[in-house]
Amino acid sequence: MMRLPPFTYLAPVSVGDAVKLMGDHGAEAMLVAGGTDLYPNMKRRQFEPRVLVGLRGIRELREVRGDARRGMTIGAGTTLRAASGHAEIARHYPALAMAAGLVSSPQLRAMGTLGGNVCVDTRCNYYNQSHAWRKAVGFCMKKDGDICLVAPGSPRCWAVSSSDTAPALWSLGASVRLAGPAGERTIPISALYQDDGIQYLTKQPGDIVTEIVLPPADGARSIYLKLRRRGSFDFPVLGVAATLHMDGDTVRRARIVLGAVASLPREAPEAARLLVGERLTPELIDRAADAAYRPAKPLDNTDLTHPYRKKMVRVYVARALRRLAGLPDEVDG
User: What percent of the chain has pLDDT over 90?
Assistant: First the structure.
């Protein structure tokens, strides 16, 4: 049985207190909300904080405000179950509701938070193993080693983004509000990520994601589809989020974002450009799916083979767009 290492748990009651505690303890401290990813990583000695600053007692982090007309603000401590079941989110921002509802299992969605999933650690077959397993292969660059076992000649880590909600929020044009030693700021969610398996977040370690801000829905259609081996529990091996703003039958704006194909959610801007000003015909959808296929470059570092995962990008993008257009799924031979 893997056990948690010793640590001190601190329970602030405000965001300001949490920021101060993180500053007081520096590199020894980590934030924890639901802990559904953090605690298993601590058991495997991938994370070794001496202090955990708990966010569950901060009531303001669980507030959901606004509506589809004005935009919505969702506290980062809102559970995934609450986000997926919120009537306004499910009706007007369905990609987010779908993504939150597909994370892991019902038990973990009841504990895991939206902010936690937005910031969830990147994953790799050589990293997400027990300490003994990793020691036997000489460790990897992401923890305790000095080379990437997926691409030994590479100077960087290629662990993949494993968030379901991040691609959905990116496609919806969401922003995140951060609180830290330098004060508060709001940035597009796309600016929160960078393409590095270790330093995959641009925020500073002492910064706290406090809120997710959704723009006015403006009648958008959105969807999130997830590929995984099992129907529950598994992290994505591919996620596809698409959001369309329509003028009648014509696409006015579009955004398509892929998950689990890089160390950050990967936008497919050319695929979106093909849709703008056009009607969603089967032929156009196939062209857009081909365009989305090109920026997806999965490596052999997670479940299922990477050639299959790349092939599925075309299939899942086409499936997502066909569903948004009200067309039946094609049967893949």
Answer: 96
